[in-house]
Inverse folding.
């Protein structure tokens, strides 16, 4: 059976001679490739041409690279593309900046969009800088952007620095949430110092709520478990706090597949159904997008539909299937443009 056409994003260095680009696009057309978009990026000593190409069914990336080389070009990078890559650079930058201004904590996501980076995260130590990894300084944090498929250009770095400067201090690590019944809740990163508050959260949760989260009879957690919940290796924990009490928590942990991360939520019984879980899921979805994850995966009991309902309320696409005796819930990290962009909407 014939495979579905693939869309690829290529960066190419060509000889500075008349007709070089035209000859390359003709060669691609001969291989039944359709060039959907083209942009030119200035670099020292010349330019890099970036093309979004829809390849014929069965055509592999190596075939595209061979076509480029046949016209004397050098493929600087190639990666899978989607419809978002058809938006021109200035439009993408303006849209990313607007989203970051409307959406607390959206700076990493905006920078990743502008750079076409694989991930943009807050640095937790010294950052090695090279062609594929750059450091951006904000008043609140140091961001590190990584892109494996192609080196960063000086023009792109300048664009990202300008974006960060424009957004100024809008790289907060906390955000506000107004629940469905008008209560104020703070969403913030978890820290080891929150161990006692998280332990107290577990004591206030019913056995049913804890069983749905951990799939076992848990009431109290050892100290080492609490620390691991709050600072998961390579993962992220977000807490929901009302007054001095932690009333909910969410976790995002990378999976073995590069585009997916596991998500889990725990909300105190008295706060369930009020938008706290929705706010936590949206905060984790923003973090997932900034880190390059397109899918959030939750493992639920087969009769438990809470995560599906929360995703629907958040405007995030979701589907489920039975797997290994559990319900595997797949949640997209992006919601429709028409959906509300405010976490406060619950």
């Amino acid at each position: 059976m014939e495979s579905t056409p693939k869309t690829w994003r290529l960066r190419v260095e060509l000889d500075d001679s008349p007709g070089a680009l035209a000859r390359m696009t003709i060669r691609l057309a001969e291989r039944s490739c359709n060039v959907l978009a083209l942009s030119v990026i200035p670099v020292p000593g010349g330019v890099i041409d970036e093309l979004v190409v829809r390849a014929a069914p069965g055509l592999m990336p190596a075939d595209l690279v061979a076509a480029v080389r046949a016209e004397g070009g050098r493929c600087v990078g190639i990666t899978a593309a989607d419809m978002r890559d058809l938006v021109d650079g200035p439009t993408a930058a303006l849209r990313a900046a607007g989203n970051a201004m409307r959406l607390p904590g959206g700076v990493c996501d905006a920078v990743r969009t502008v750079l076409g980076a694989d991930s943009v995260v807050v640095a937790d130590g010294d950052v090695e800088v090279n062609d594929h990894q750059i450091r951006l300084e904000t008043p609140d944090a140091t961001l590190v952007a990584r892109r494996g498929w192609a080196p960063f250009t000086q023009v792109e770095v300048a664009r990202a620095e300008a974006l960060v400067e424009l957004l100024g201090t809008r790289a907060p690590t906390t955000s506000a949430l107004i629940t469905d019944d008008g209560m104020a809740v703070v969403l913030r990163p978890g820290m080891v110092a929150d161990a006692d508050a998280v332990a107290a959260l577990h004591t206030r949760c019913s056995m049913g709520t804890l069983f749905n989260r951990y799939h076992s009879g848990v009431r109290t957690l050892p100290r080492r478990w609490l620390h691991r919940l709050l600072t998961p290796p390579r993962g992220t924990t977000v807490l929901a706090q009302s007054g001095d009490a932690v009333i909910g928590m969410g976790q995002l942990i990378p999976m073995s597949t590069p585009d997916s991360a596991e998500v889990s939520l725990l909300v105190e019984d008295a706060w369930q159904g009020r938008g706290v879980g929705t706010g936590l899921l949206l905060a984790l979805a923003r973090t997932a997008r900034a880190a390059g994850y397109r899918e959030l995966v939750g493992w639920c009991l087969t009769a438990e539909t809470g995560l599906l309902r929360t995703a629907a309320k958040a405007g995030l696409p979701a589907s489920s299937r039975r797997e290994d005796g559990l319900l595997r819930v797949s949640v997209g990290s992006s919601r429709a443009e028409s959906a509300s962009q405010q976490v406060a909407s619950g």
